[in-house]
Amino acid sequence: MNEQNEPETAVLLDELREWFEAHVVAGTSQVTAMLLYAIAAWAGGINGALVTMPRMILLSGPESGKTTGMIVTAALGPNPTDADGTADDLKSALAEADSTPEDPLRIFYFDEVGEIYGDDGSNKGSNRTLNKLLRKGYKLGAQDGRSRQGVSRKFSIFFPVIMTGRHVAVPVDIRSRTIVVRMEPGTPERYFDARKSESEAAEYASHLGTAVRDHLSEIKEFRGRGYHPKLTMRRLEVWEPLMAVAKVLGGRRWLNMCMDAFMELALSTEQVMLTPRQRFIRDLIKVLDKVAFELPDERMFAGGEALADELRHLDPERYGDLGMTQVVARNMRPASRSRYASGLRGHVVTMRMISGLSGSGSRPKNCGLSKSQPSKNRSMSRTDLEMTRSWCSKFPHRLRLSRGHGVQGQEHNQKKAGKK
């Protein structure tokens, strides 16, 4: 222990954090999560201290530094290995790790995993080895196999995997095993160059490996249950490895930083990975307040063209070619004469088919918003509803879409609204 009653290794973690922040542009919690993930990778493997190893994905748009963040994080782990390529290439890399018991640890990385699963994570993925690694390989004891000359051989696939992508990027079942880090655009203080930075990373990685090996039994004995009421079941399996290395190597201060990261990255609706429907609801609510105006009867109206323009401005890549029907926000009477209020007043926002909204790939297709009673809602999951209530807390009015277009559509909708 040092003078602050912290483990001696806390000094190493503090120094490493300063070095990492010079190379990667990210928020405080994001940096904490990436650093602890690299450290936890040293405690994995079939002879390690962990029984689960989460996946990590760095999400952002192009030219935002997510690839650099992935490379720097992987460089601090054991034997960084590119998981890109064919299923056989990846299977060979996994088998090789199993055949070198003197140095079995690996951290796999995969850039732009959306190319496999689609940016919205809706594709099943053609790389069966990667699918199995991401889904099954997060638990100790997971195996894959291959057959050579009639001889079948099994090998461990219990390895950490860090990825990059845009928006959602991975299927729902993989998301639950994944720590999501949303990157921030910006220019780092130092470029991660091959001559100096990579050698520094290798030296830090060596120190981290030694520190973890020296405290392997303490890491193995750590239990994360009870630190937070929502840290249970799958969330506990995902975050406990990071908590263990934070507490053992960094002391209480680093454990507190890890808990801050958990609350921001795992519990914040702005950080969790969203389905296309969830993302569309969030984006529509973001722009609705900018274009909605009050009718004489105090109801609010929003024209489809104006909404489409705001959505295109919000995310040109996703909504660049968006064509949208008119959106009428009906019965929008602010509570207590305030424009904003909390709660959905017994109604939920759900998706329904709209002919005027189209798209492909990562863009939402044929979906919109309408109001429905919770008991009759069949189209949204519990997670969808929870996120929608959270987003709508700032604009809690019931929404309705109609099929009017342009000025005539606005007049039609206004007349129709006036009759009711």
Keywords:
15 helices, alpha/beta, 420 residues, globular, five-stranded parallel beta sheet, 43% helix, two-stranded antiparallel sheet, single chain, Rossmann fold, 2 domains
Can you walk through the features of this model?
- Helix content is 43%, strand content 11%.
- It has helices spanning 9-23, 28-41, 66-75, 87-98, 114-117, 128-135, 172-175, 197-214, 216-221, 233-265, 276-291, 304-314, 316-319, 382-392, 406-419, and strands at 55-59, 80-82, 107-110, 143-148, 151-156, 161-165, 178-182, 293-294, 300-301, 327-328, 348-350, 370-372, 400-401.
- The protein is built from 15 helices and 13 strands.
- Helix 1 crosses helix 10, helix 2 runs antiparallel to helix 10 (233-265) and helix 11 packs parallel to helix 14 (382-392).
- The protein has 2 domains: 9-265, 3-Layer(aba) Sandwich (Rossmann fold), CATH 3.40.50.300; 276-419, no CATH class.
- The radius of gyration is 24 Å and the shape is globular.
- The chain is α/β, with parallel strands linked by helices and 420 residues long.
- Residues 324-379 and 394-413 have low confidence and may be disordered.
Report the portion of residues in β strands.
5-15%
Overall mean confidence score, pLDDT = 78
The multimeric state of the shown protein is: single chain
Secondary-structure element order, as H and E?
Answer: HHEHEHEHHEEEHEHHHHEEHHEEEHEH
Strand order of the largest sheet: 2-3-6-1-7
Cα(first) to Cα(last) distance is 73 Å
Number of separate structural domains: 2
